[in-house]
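Incident log entry.

Two folding requests arrived from the same account within the same minute. Monitoring flagged them as a possible duplicate submission, but the sequences differ. Recording both here for audit purposes.

Request one:
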Amino acid sequence: MTIALGNDHAAVEMKFFVKKYLEEKGYEVLNLGTDTLDSVDYPDFGAAVGRAVTGGEAELGIAICGSGVGISIAANKVKGVRAVCCSEPYSARMSREHNNANVLCFGARVIGQEMAKMIIDEFLAAKFQGGRHEKRVNKILALEE
């Protein structure tokens, strides 16, 4: 599975940690983030991750900025993206199971590396449950029209 990974300057160190963690788990990582501490604009990277997911370059995405909020808002502007900003594992799991989320976002200034691993593991292990949730996700998709 390929995972699109994007970040701004506030999350360079976290991005490198996440990239290594994902690769060690056998995932292919599409690095769409900045690799330097030079100031950049998080919307560019949230959009890049979203476009990679909706364009089929990656099955899922992870986007990281200082808080996780701005980059998730940007990713959600890409049609077909259901990005979620999570600071703990439960929401990451539920976002996949109930909302069919396809982009995970979090803040490098909010959580540490061990929490990031737990959130990522829950997000990647969870599967969309469909059923009653399918109707609700379809309503979300209809809002884009």
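Request two (distinct sequence, not a duplicate):
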Amino acid sequence: MELITTKEVARLLVVSDEQVRRLVHRHGLPCYQLSPRVLRFKEEEVLQWVKKTRSCI
């Protein structure tokens, strides 16, 4: 299981790092919170989430 960073998710979704954090807190983007400021993601989960929610955001 490889986890990717907030910056890598931002590049994948073509958004800013801050927007990724908003997607986590406001829209339920799945992540693993390693500490209050450190988030990690599974790329497969991010892509599934995008497919499921892209018409809602």
